[in-house]
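Batch job 17 of 40 flagged for manual review because the log was empty.
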Amino acid sequence: QVQLVESGGGLVQPGGSLRLSCVASGSIFSSYTMAWYRQAPGKQRELVAGIGSGGFRNYADSVKGRFTISRDNAKNTVYLQMNSLEPEDTAVYYCKASALNWRNDYWGQGTQVTVSS
């Protein structure tokens, strides 16, 4: 059983920045693979960025060079730094945790990001 809580969403103007946080339960957070997904109204949920237990990162093409995923294992937290935000980034952002020996992935409830003038 893993619980994930996202925070940091809000309203920002185009070109602005936000940092999302996701706090996970568990004493072995360092072994989890963490990822951020997003879903806009009427659209399918898509992978934004992921970070493995060894620090490997991957990003969707649409956010490369603008977003950075990182983790602080001592705080059981994964972050998504979002710079140069565009209206197309508007979505609910979800945190996901996974591990090779788990039966299921775990998802947070999401945090709204709105990019608008």
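Reviewer: the log was empty due to a logging misconfiguration, but the result itself is present. DSSP finds no helices and eleven strands in the chain. Unflagging and moving on to job 18.
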